[in-house]
Amino acid sequence: MGEVERITKTVDMSGEQVEIVMTKMMTPCTQEEFESMSLEEREHAKIQPALNQRTYSPEEGIICMQDIPVKMRDGATIYVDIYKPEAEGKYPLIISWSFYGKRPFEGQAEWQIMGVPPHTVSDMSKFESPDPGYWCRHGYAVANVDPRGIGHSEGDFVQFGTQDGKDGYDFIEWAANQEWCNGRCGLAGNSCVAMTQWRIAAQQPPHLACIAPWESTTDMYRESLCEGGIPAKAFVGFVMREACGINYIDNTPLNLEKYPFVNCTYWKDKEPDFGKVKIPVYQTACWNHLHLRGSINAFRKCKSRRKWLRAHRNFEWPDAYSNENIQDLEKFYARYLKLERNGWELTPKVRIEVQDVGEFNYQTNRPEESFPLKRTRYEKLYLDASDNSMKAEPVAGEAKASYDSLTGEVCFDYRFEEDTELTGYLKLRLYVAAESYDDMDLFVNIQKLSTTGEFLPITLFGENHPGAWGKMRVSRRKLDEKLSTDYNPVQAHTCDEKLEPGQIVPVDIEIVPTSRFFHKGQQIRVQIAGRYIREDWFEPLRWESDNKGNHLIYTGGQYESFLQIPVIPPRFQDGDIIIR
């Protein structure tokens, strides 16, 4: 594949001039232009129709106003397709804002909506976005936007920053004043389309009435490109390659090399200001997906007094397009975009699915008041390398476990003597050393075992999920004191602290939230390795790990390694009667 053109540009980020690396995006072209290109030219082009400003009916009862130009405050023009009911009237607007093409799969042609049967979603739907085929028939307009730099929209595309937020503000204020709009706008969509919602909402456009970010990475550094301090550029690069536009894209993997620490303007510009989000929010989070950490943090940090969280086990696409969940979302939008008094406020602030095994839940949509749960009881399970177990009491004798950092692993197991629910944040404290190297990358999975010691995974699309996870590059072990809590350590990523070979250091590893039920006699396992153990898990995730030689894990005595778990006691118990 030919080399992608790269340049360095100075751009405004939160009022500061920052030099960033940008690369040329796939060039939009017509079918005829594509066919006339050489094979090398085709590697850098995507078929997208030329601008064609028209109004037509894609389906009976629905009107599409195609390629509408909208001017931003600095003069740049972006283009949008707007779908609305054919009947005259003023409609609330639901907006999809992302660098996926504004017509189905433009720039994303090979992606499929896994887990969603054919014909569930109409050809009007943008990838991971609200379907006009549903919403227009329920009294809403839908805007599929090509942001700055995408498709035929002018300018360069700077990913997930304040520029995207300001442009979203400008578009919302334009749309709210159109003759077909009732003046109330909402944002919708999952994954990438959810991530942009927080950046736009933080700009506080007056006519943005609510948002529904269903699965949203919100800390690009800690949750996507450098989780645990271990670079993971492949997935973002994979997604970025499909961005199609006439100019350049902010290349975040290359800028991670340019700006390796988080305490700089480049990364700060990509952090949403949750304190400015005060409108109604409906956030979802999948216990088994890469957006989990960001979704939970966004819900916790935003300042809205009208916010709801639904945490579930299913993958984002079948969850987003299921009949039950679409109807639930419609109640939310009807309340805040149509101002219907439909009782939405009685919806529990938090609903969780407590996972059991495979595709089965122990409980579904259990109502709670907050997250983490107020009745959480944090307990410690102490690692013992002498027999690869965990114990409920501190271990007196010191011991050491060793594994090859490239091919090996070590596990520690604990058997529950009674039914136990774990819901919330876990934390792993380890005393570690690299036997003959100056750094070590740790990949941790928290798993459930049967009463006879067999792995009992959660399954999605028939594949075994590795388990609740955590990662750490030990040279990045320093914690951010402001962001960390006793139950949720957060790495600072402001410096490297290399090891001396054999040097023993304590590390606190953040484990993503989970909700899992362990029946009496079942076991919990801590799996530790120098690589991500996933057994063909379908997501194309890869990390640039830095390991050599053996890793050493110390336990017992002065090396009090432990797993801290969030135990949820029953809400009510009377003898053998338990209500959870």
UniProtKB/TrEMBL annotation:
PANTHER family xrefs: COCE_NOND FAMILY, PUTATIVE (AFU_ORTHOLOGUE AFUA_7G00600)-RELATED, PEPTIDASE S9 PROLYL OLIGOPEPTIDASE
Statement: the UniProt record of this protein carries the keyword Hydrolase: yes
Superkingdom of origin organism: Bacteria
Domain Xaa-Pro dipeptidyl-peptidase C-terminal: 330-564
Keywords, alphabetical: Hydrolase
Cited InterPro entries: AB_hydrolase_fold, CocE/Ser_esterase, Galactose-bd-like_sf, Xaa-Pro-like_dom, Xaa-Pro_dipept_C, Xaa-Pro_dipeptidyl-ppase/CocE
Protein name: CocE/NonD family hydrolase
Gene3D superfamilies per the UniProt record, alphabetical: 1.10.3020.20, alpha/beta hydrolase, Galactose-binding domain-like
Molecular functions (GO terms): dipeptidyl-peptidase activity
